[in-house]
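Fold it.
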Amino acid sequence: MPESTTCRDAMSRQLLVMAKRIEKGDTAVIRAKIDKVWENGLVTLHLPGYEHPVTVHEQYLEEIIRGPEAPREPKVKDREKPLYDERT
């Protein structure tokens, strides 16, 4: 039997098992990246696979995992000198 046929059969069996486990009324957890937090309590999220962001109220978020801190912008005095000399 060709390998692609057995793989396809195994995948279809797995999908049937998954379909039986998920029922209407179940709760799903979705991971999303937070794009913006609004002053009025709304949170804009980027869901994987969706082109446009989704905005929900913060009361619907149960668990927040802190992401890595963004690198800070160096202050003017911390910046290196330019590679070229000033014109004289």
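The mean pLDDT is 78.
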